[in-house]
Specification:
The chain has about 190 residues and is mainly alpha-helical. Helix content is about 50%, strand content about 0%. The protein contains 9 helices and 2 strands, in the order H-H-H-H-H-H-H-E-E-H-H.
């Protein structure tokens, strides 16, 4: 049997990938999700991975932004190019799960700093000011959960405390998207 680490994801079919994923540990699933190539089989493979209860909120945020949602955020469903319907469906499901509370933070793992989230929230705030909506909106409850996690002190393997100051600062600015936008443009 081929090991998970040596499996050739680029050449494997969706069925072969799913077969390997079903044998994976939760840690392996989260790791693969964060680095999965969206140009391969996102609907088949990522849909299955992202539906697993072991996927945490940090992984979901990373996977969502790896799918480059900004490409589709303002395109009406009827105007989506045919080749992207499956990708957008996966993004729809990830955001739905994020906003519904399906994904939870991993208490022992800090949320990685992701400038794309701050950028997204700034754009979302701008949309609100201009009374428009993109396809996907991150709920404030998700931001509050990420902010709460970023304030936690995590003890690493060496026993040293690590504070997530960069993320805390970014999320504090983004916890209120309108305020974050006003701060950016000095209103």
């Amino acid at each position: 049997m081929q090991s998970f680490e040596r499996f050739n994801w680029a050449e494997a079919s969706p069925d072969e990938q799913l077969e390997m994923l079903r044998k994976a540990s939760p840690r392996q699933l989260r790791s693969l999700a964060r680095r999965y190539d969206w140009k391969t089989y996102p609907e088949t493979v990522l849909s299955w991975v992202m539906s697993q209860r072991c996927i945490d909120l940090g992984t979901a945020v990373t996977v969502f932004f790896n799918g480059e949602p900004e490409r589709f955020n303002y395109i009406p469903k009827r105007d989506l190019p045919k080749g992207f319907h499956r990708t957008v469906r996966v993004l729809d499901n990830i955001m739905l799960r994020m906003n519904s509370g399906y994904y939870h933070m991993q208490p022992s793992k800090p949320m990685p700093v992701d400038d794309r989230l701050e950028w997204w929230m700034d754009n979302q705030a701008q949309d609100q000011l201009e009374r428009r909506r993109g396809r996907w909106e991150v709920e404030n409850s998700v931001i509050r959960q990420l902010e709460a996690q970023s304030c936690a002190v995590v003890i690493d393997a060496d026993g040293e405390a690590q504070e997530q100051k960069n993320l805390q600062s970014a999320l504090r600015r983004s916890a209120n998207p309108v305020q974050a936008f006003k701060e950016r443009v000095n209103l």
